[in-house]
């Protein structure tokens, strides 16, 4: 750019505010000099990621030039992630990731938060002017639209996009993508889908296929959404948003095992995305795959050290998962998991020391870790340390109350555990999720390994029953009840088997007596229980059989 252009009133660089983020002073000085040569007047600098976020909290910047590697602490990905999360970066602002590193992990991780461009070191004046010039020109052309979106005035933004389409052919793709997204935001799915379909009739663009998947998902057309998104990730295996949306669609279908596979594949391709690791961990837990869950929770905690998404819940989840895996495992691997659980929870207490209830929840898990390793005295001592908080705090959160009951069951204090759950059920009688968790805990007040043993036996019993192998089914259900004798569904499953056996041979009257004993075990079942209506139906059927 020549001197005349630099001094011209319409210099596109001059009035914008710039922030340079780099841990090396020489690079900050070099970038400042280049920007000054473009006629830039407002330049600020930061030497750490934390300092950069503080600057953006109190000042507005139009352009952020941020190095990826910033030494100890937050890196460029963390900075961009936090600026997006806190909405400190306006849509009209530009974020350029500057890096000498081009590893796949770095690029995939940083791309998750959509920087406007990458600049690869070393950077010279001509390269910076060319890349920055085109971005600043686009920023200026689309500024009214982005401002309307920042103000959440979506109808105005839609109108501006429609006006700009014939006037700004250079930015047609951006305008169509933005317009379709705006239609989706306001719930106008038909117009959004028309744009995606029109685009895809001319070119195979991954964002348009993703958008079509979003529309199908919003309209609850889950089968079509899964088909669309499976095709997308097959054709564009590096398109991470496709995996996330596909997993969500599969979850809506209740296909958690497939959702876990999809998230696992995405986590392999882009391992530095904390939110995806957390999602994978949660789905794996729902699938009772604690090996995968513990690995994903561990990665979530590691990635969270400098992230805005770092939470105590991540540490608690890892501690609980390791506790379950180490329960009753006296091998070297089991001992290591127990020690890792205790270390994780100890780190959490130091890191998040402003929440008293968090300490209570941490110590409850620690109690179970000690009990699972046979250290009963340590377990009792750990629980005693928080007894005052547990006894004085009648307003325990549902999560803490459930964890307390789970811990009491682990220490074989059945009566105390049931009393805690009764109090919790009364306090949360209008919350079906909490009531369901209470039911599950009452059904299976045992360790993770015992729960898995009982569930596997239950599945075997159901399969045998469906195959007409009644003796094998009864044996499987009875063995499962030896592990969890109060499990409602298991008791009723065995009742159904005994009734079927009696139907095949009415001379076996002892089968009806067995049914009566099993149903009597459930005499106190509350009406709100999911199995209550099934219990009444089987009771009525038993009465009719006894009178035949």
Automatic annotation (TrEMBL):
Gene3D superfamilies: 3.40.50.2300, Tetratricopeptide repeat domain (1.25.40.10). Keywords: Phosphoprotein, TPR repeat. InterPro entries: CheY-like_superfamily, Sig_transdc_resp-reg_receiver, ST_Response_Regulator, TPR-like_helical_dom_sf, TPR_rpt. Pfam families: Response_reg, TPR_6. It comes from the Bacteria. The modification 4-aspartylphosphate is found at residue 67. Residues 17-136 form the Response regulatory domain. TPR repeats lie at residues 454-487. CDD domains: REC_TPR (cd17589). SMART domains: REC, TPR. This is Response regulator. It comes from Marinobacter xestospongiae.
